[in-house]
Structures are given as C-alpha cells and as structure tokens.
Amino acid sequence: MYYRSQHRPFHNALFQHAYEKNNNIAIPVNIYETEKAFEIELMVPGRNKTNFTIQSENGLLTVEYNQPTAQKETNNKILQKQFAAQSFKKVFSLPENIQTDNIEAAYTDGVLKISLPLKAVKTPVAKNIAVA
C-alpha cells in the first residue's frame, strides 16, 4: 500500500509550477497518478537527452534543458523561422510522499517522462494488550 494524500495534488498546490525560466516557449506537461507513482510527461521534441538536467532538492523538482548555441554555417538566407529547440527551466513543487531517491526519467520520441514513486505506508497493526 502506498501513501496518497487525502486531496488531489492538482487542487492543493502540489505539482504547481514554482516558476519557469524562458517564458518565450510553453512546454506542455501532463501529470498522471498511478497506484505506485506520479508520472510527469513533458512534450519536448527535437532535444538531445544529454542536455537535460533533472534535480530534486528541498521539495522541488527542477527540469532544465540547455540548448547548445552552435551556429550552422550556411549561405542560405532565412526567410521564415518559426521553431527552434530552446533552453528552458521548469520547477515543480513536490508532495511529501515522494521517494526522492528513486525518481527515474526517460526521453523517448520527444517526450520526457519522469516517474516519482510514492512512499510505502506501513499499515498499523492491531495489538492486544493484556491486563495484569
């Protein structure tokens, strides 16, 4: 059995974005709750997984992407440019029932998936007390 808060995390400010760096781009996020974990998905296509940094500290989960600034040499004149992979930073507040030592992440098909396992709860055991 795993610990679940009485309230949904989306209604009591858990998992709310503490802040975002780079407001020029919006990174879509899905958050799911399973029996044993919360799952966060970020839609970030066209990135290199080695440029992601994910850190859990002081009740915050920080997801950062640093886009290298290498310029491509080309003789072509850009007429229109509507997309480019950009650096970003998203910070989420975490509930207290997360096993921060066991957080896992994977980047597949343009989606960064972060698994936040829930802490196991010890079920109280009834104990008979003898009267002396």
TrEMBL record:
InterPro entries: A-crystallin/Hsp20_dom (IPR002068), HSP20-like_chaperone (IPR008978), Small_HSP (IPR031107). Residues 20-132 form the SHSP domain. It holds the Pfam family HSP20. It comes from the Bacteria. Belongs to the small heat shock protein (HSP20) family. PANTHER family: HEAT-SHOCK PROTEIN 20 FAMILY MEMBER. This is HSP20 family protein. It comes from Hydrotalea sandarakina.
